[in-house]
Write a structure and sequence with these properties.
alpha/beta; Methyltransferase, Cobalt-precorrin-4 Transmethylase, Domain 2; 2 domains; three-stranded parallel β-sheet
């Protein structure tokens, strides 16, 4: 579904939603608001039945797997009833998404399942466009790092990369900036939270990034400075 703004939905995604019998939207265990559902709300001409799936954000793999399995059984029940189903997920379904886990579980329950994947605009592509930051060019390298745990900020990886995208960078902004400093290079930094949603904030530079910390739906883009490009 892209990062959230309705106008970043692809035409293929809109066609899939309009043709579906059932649309599944995602909510967290402690939240009644669905970002994906809000984007679906913007699509005209829908006659699909809409259902919500509750997933776990627990750090326990067992709890997360159990939630995925429960949801897979719900989806499988609809498919066995002859309904075509669409799973609405923000961003791209194959980039740090719940979708692959759910699809794999449903495939175990239904033999010969046909699955179509509709690619979406990633949050970091949209954030780069919003901040005017080029991600990479020519022979530069790009790393995408899940930054919700400080131990994911490996110095060796950062030192060998020209541009780093830190996803879920709400509570770890300070640790990210420290890890970048440890590489011995200077970096251009942009921190974006709630892109395209109410309360959107765009911060440029380390100081503003620190002030912008805290929001779950956030990311930080760091690009190594070069004298000549």
């Amino acid at each position: 579904m892209g990062p959230g703004p309705a106008d970043l939905l692809t035409l293929r995604a809109v066609a899939a939603f309009r043709s579906a019998d059932v649309i599944f939207e995602v909510v967290g265990r402690n939240s009644s608001f669905s970002v994906s559902g809000a984007v679906v709300d913007s699509i005209e001409g829908l006659s699909s039945r809409r259902e919500r799936l509750v997933f776990s954000m627990s750090l326990s793999p067992g709890e997360r797997r159990a939630a995925v399995r429960r949801n897979a059984e719900i989806v499988a029940r609809e498919l066995r009833g002859g309904n075509s189903c669409v799973f609405a997920t923000i961003g791209d379904p194959l980039t740090y998404s719940t979708f692959p886990y759910l699809a794999a579980e449903v495939a175990e329950l239904i033999e010969g399942l046909e699955v179509e994947v509709v690619p979406g605009v990633t949050s970091f592509n949209a954030a780069a466009a919003a901040t005017g930051a080029t991600l990479v060019e020519h022979d530069e390298t790009l790393a995408v790092v899940p930054a919700f745990l400080p131990e994911n900020l490996r110095e060796g990886l950062l030192a060998a990369t020209d541009t780093v995208v830190f996803l879920k960078a709400g509570k770890t902004v300070g640790a990210i900036l420290a890890a970048l400093d440890a590489t011995g290079s200077e970096w251009d930094v942009a921190h974006v939270s709630r892109l395209g949603l109410e309360g959107e904030r765009i911060a440029k530079g380390p100081d503003e990034a620190l002030e912008n910390a805290g929001e779950y739906l956030s990311l930080l883009i760091a690009r190594r400075k070069r004298e000549n490009r």
